[in-house]
Amino acid sequence: MYLFGIPVLTKFFAQQMQPPGSATRRHSPLSSDANWPSCAVSTNISPSGLPVSPVSDTSHNFNTPRLFREALRFINATFAPKEIFVAEFGFPVYGESDMELGQARYDLGRTNFFHDYLLEILGAYNEDKIPVKGAISWGLMDNLEWSSGLEVRFGFQYVNYTTQERYYKQSIHYLTQFFEHYIQ
């Protein structure tokens, strides 16, 4: 395989629908096709009973960098791609659309997300020798999200949708410092 692109949303755990040893096995049809039963459900609750990460502003984005690195190891071992590109990774800070400008610009959740993921990507490249060749963040500025409209913000720039004014958030300054420190 020449190239493998992987988006970063989150990692889920699978749980059996019926406890082991049960007399009857429960199945649930998948919503897309009733002919394909499912005996497990996915969850963002870890076996320890805790969520995989703090909540984000969507139901499918969590800060799970260690699980992502495990996925990179699996992809590398299973498919042996010459190059891996991390595609479309970003983090919507919970409630950011409802925050005042100053609060929204201090996007600690997004900053932590990029810090955690970029360190794991570097570790995968340097320590695990996984051929990660690039990472594409989502997104440069707040924008229209397909299913959420203007309510969910992923950007490094805060956009005032009325005036179109843009303001840099803390995360872009952190990203600049990260690349100055780690990338030569």
TrEMBL record:
Superkingdom in the source lineage: Eukaryota
SUPFAM superfamilies, per the entry: (Trans)glycosidases
UniProt GO MF annotations: beta-glucosidase activity
Pfam assignment, any one: Glyco_hydro_1
Signal peptide feature range: none
GO biological process, one term: carbohydrate metabolic process
Family: Belongs to the glycosyl hydrolase 1 family.
Name used for this protein in its record: Glycoside hydrolase family 1 protein
Organism lineage string: Eukaryota, Fungi, Dikarya, Ascomycota, Saccharomycotina
